[in-house]
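Two entries, shown back to back:
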Amino acid sequence: MLKIYSLFKKHRRIILFFCDMVLWNLSYYLSFCIHKNNFSLHGNENVFLTGLAEVNISFAVVFLLFRLYDKMWRYAETEDFFFAAIASLSANIVFMTAMMITGSLNSGLALNSKTFITNSLTSTLFVMMFRIIYRHNKILERRSLARKAKKRLMIIGAGEGALSVLNELSKSPVNEYIPVCIVDDNKEKLHRRIAGVKVAGTTYEIKELCEALGIEVILFTISQISISDKKRILDTCAETHLEVKIIPNIYNLMTSGVPITSSIRQVEVEDLLGREPVVFDTEKYGSYIIGQTVLVTGGGGSIGSELCRQIANLRPKHLIILDIYENNAYDIQQELIRKHGSDLSFEVQIASVRDKRKLDHIFRTRKIDVVFHAAAHKHVPLMETNPEEAVKNNVFGTLKVAEIADKYHVKNFVQISTDKAVNPTNVMGATKRICEMLIQMMGKKSKTNFVAVRFGNVLGSNGSVIPLFKEQIRTGGPVTVTHPDIIRYFMTIPEAVSLVLTAGSIAKGGEIFILDMGEPVKIRVLAENLIRLSGFKPHEDIKIEYTGLRPGEKLYEELLLNEEGITKTDNKKIYVGRPIEFSEEELLRKLKTLYYAAYRNNKDEVEMLIEDIVPTFKHATNENAELPEIEEDDD
């Protein structure tokens, strides 16, 4: 059998051609016999053979010209069968024309017009039925193989995305899913079938259908849906404790030619945030980047590298990526080369923001127009034990870059800040607050537009809790959460960078821009949902351990100081905090003392001086923070 199957695959086109030849010969024979009212060819052998030769020549030429044997009929769609019907009818017209030219039709010896119509219908029917049966058998064969797959699949959404997924799954004999049912809230689609799979209910019946049908995996395929409905459906999916996957950007995938099943991924945290994603308006806000020389400090980090990606799309004159860590800088360098090639002029500078001479050389020789200052030490616990390094890098690194930017008349300087700068309880946040004060001070005396942009946690950034949770789930747990009541604001890296770029375009100098981070998220609930959507039960399959707040960590972050008010901007996602007045002379005097304390590596003095500069800094060690008694799964 294997040899026969292998032989068929090797000579498939020839075999299909001869099958078609049998069919059109059979059609001609039947039409001829109907015309003669007799199934015997006795006495009409010559006439029959003459017509038979013309049939074979006509059909063979037309079918080959129509390239019917180049198609993979096992995957044929409706238009392919229509194309085959057109080929058959065209072949009949050629046959009739040949008969007229040879005189056989006019003489009435072979076929009359009635018989020609009969032959056209029967040959077309035979050719199409042969292909339909062939394709149906292949579908049954693939389904038989597919039943050996491991996971029973529910598809959410009875639209184009579901149809594309089902078609791709049916074409792959080694896929790991068995499509069992579809759910959709459109009542007109209920109890109907798509590619043989029944629309069994609505999204409100997901839990019941999963239990009744033994579902193992849920696939979300809806593209046009409100954020609130998407969050509701995904929250319902999480309650099933099944593995949940999603296909993002269905329309883009369908138009790109990329196989849709290749884009199936796990549900990410951003899918659960329940708010509209932020997209940078290039035409409205991107003009200050186009044709300019742009420097990104910390350009290899999570925020810095995304800044480089989005800036590269804005056609800068030249992009400079500055970072002290060469591995990250190399990664973004290679990524930009692969994506843009020679279309993007850029370079990588391995340097520290503490190195004033190197910075001066770069600014003097490159004539920089725009600076995005993302370089900083950001890891809260590490900066608690190394406060002098936070001061050297965050405070005086920022001051050096800012002073040199002012010296060489940079047009715009955008400082990346953090919500931890508001009423800081840790050294990292306090140093970032000092940076904001420096930006306000520079903005008053410089022709450069100095601004700071303050936002909360970004998903997937270096040190983010989300990658840690995923790794802990992958290894079977436990998932560690510092406190059951801790909450954070979250935003994706591309969103945060889009708003940073937008803020840079509307800067006038000295502002602290505050990004709308949406609703705060309880970290415990976030961990539980990630566990559920990975197909496990929190507190049963994967344990959650509460480790206590780390030194300097808050239960919740703030975006505004008590003294600050906010002013709206043209962009509804960006606000401006009202500047807090302080003595610049006193700040500079205290900074000088802080500088010497940091470079003497006197940690105690450094912390004392930071508290003196930032009155709202209340250092929290959290060493004795107690964990409250809580009831599991109460959210």
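entry 2 starts here
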Amino acid sequence: MTKRIFITGIVQGVGFRPCCKKVADDMLLSGTVKNLGGDAEIVIKCDNRVSEEFLRRLVSLLPKEARFDSVDITDCEEFAGDGFSIIKSESDDRLLPEIIPDIATCNKCLTELENKSDRRCLHPFISCAACGPRYSIINKLPYDRENTLMAKFSLCDKCAAEYTSPADRRLHAQTVACKECGPKLFWRGNEASENPLSTAADTVKNGGVIAVKDIGGYHFVCLAKNGAAIEKLRNLKLRERKPFAVMFKDLEQVKEVLDVNNTEAELLCSAARPIVLIEKADEVFEEASMGSRFVGAMLPSNPVQYMLSSELGALIMTSGNISGEPIITDNDTMLNIFENSPYLDGVLYHDRDIITSLDDSIFYVLDGTPHIQRRGRGVAPASIRVDLGDKTIFAAGGDLKACLGFYKNGKAVLSQHFGDLEDEASAEVYKSSAEHISQLFGFKPEITVSDMHPAYYSSKLSKELYGMSCLQVQHHHAHIASVMAEHNLSEVLGFALDGTGYGENGEVWGGEALYCKGKNYSRIAHLKTVKMCGGDELSKNAAESLACYLTAGGQDIPDYIMPNEDAEIVKAAIKNNINCVNSSSCGRLFDAVCCLLGFGDYNYYEGQCAVALENAANVAIKKGIVASNLDLEYNKGELDTVKLVLDILRAKNLGADPHALALGFHTALADGLCKIAMAQNCRKIALSGGTFNNRVLTSILKEKLLARKFEVYMNEKVPSGDGGIALGQLFIAGKE
């Protein structure tokens, strides 16, 4: 009797076939295993009982990164051979493959890295069947060496023996290499070096800023506690105030300065090695965090990072790009920056190319649940299970925090984060990635879907790539639909709060209550619509947002908000409808209140004022300051945010504590949303949009909704910001 075992899931790039061979050899079974498309096929001479025992042993031996989505066991033609072997891979366009993200260096490889008697001691590219680059180096499926960027590195005799030895953990490890036959490190600095890694470490130790080529692209690196080096880095990146992530050498070092809960610790140590936003108990890494109450903590994910952090301790490890541009992956571009910038002191690079650029993924933990804030290395392109029928769908996402997606056969595959597509280089990376993912997974869309904004590049690209008209989806509907897709919901009341989205009436939406059922939605309530002027500058200038709110309320604009002549220009522009939009944006509301309370008047990076206002509310919570009693009135489908702003102004003028008012504002907004919920019959509430990265607002709102017996759902597998709307677009298109 011979059985065919067909397994779908994450079964390539995790040492699956070598594990199969080990189990079969231990059980003295004959047969074969091969990659089939992105899945795996095992043919084994045995009966039902033995096949079940084989699978039990196989599951116990596999690394945790492996995943079985389905296992199908059938009888097949009798196997005539003896022994068990790994045979040549085959393609199958009918199947949707599962491509594993890049995996952090495993503990066994780290032990070898530190072992002076091991031939791979201090090898910068050490890896095995269970770890190393995957998505960033694969050209096409199946996942075999000849289909990756490792193909150009011919194996030496010792590595070839490991690659073919059934007893070796590098059996069929596609990234296997050593110092003799693998990629090489190089250094470009003011002086030549025979030891690139040592010279790079010395440069950082002496206060320098260097670029390091990693798995998914370059990082800029300096000491995390060297203020002068950090200032130099800010000048290099043109990143004046946005916080930087900090890489610690191990979890113990993180725990020395941060209170890390169990979920955060698991995320830090996971194979994805993401950045995890951890709240500070004390003032630590102030130059890096720039006033944020969080440290973006991360652990090393590859051998070079391990060796640098082991020698140097905590490091700033930030994406190697100029702010607003995509992460740099090619050596020539970075070397050119070195030659022309006074702020970069050297480049540590290697000769393995990068096919897919990947920023670091970002997570945070709320109420014990991990939430992703940016999809990147270690996460993309892992699929999300969702049943949207039998059509193949392409979703263009949006232009801000861009992320595209495909759907086929019960799986949604979402790309990595691309940044904002108004940058030409980011748009080019988006386009090339769409083509690469389409080819890699064998996607041939029957439906394309995009945001309804008439000027979005992502929408235009859909037509350019696939030559068909797009289904257009309203931005905030897609936000709520992304939560529905994640949690398999058919009907919800959704609160979509963010900075901006194109509304069906041509206005700027951003504070929306939507009733969603299946593919349909209705806008049942929203934040008060305010006429706002200023064009693109409005999203940065919080003082201008406040001036627009005060003007809408018939209030004079105090000169401490802006000079009288500027205030007159704002009022005239609004009166004469010059460069104005009607807006219900929650983002602009946060900007206005932040400016009014004196916590910030300009967004030097997106969301800076909203973060400052949240931090102020958190100070009140930590210090036990009672929230100011503020009321957000709800009438005829509108929450009266203009009256709320005027009430805050009056309270401030009467001497109320700004921190109490900041907390009162968050509480009033949560109460206002609860008023909307209580007026509806739907008990399932979905929260989405970038505003829900605000942990103070989200925690207050969730507590109030749960106390009223609502069920509350949020994004977990995709960002609540615009990086998640591609999933919502897929959901809506799949329901057509």
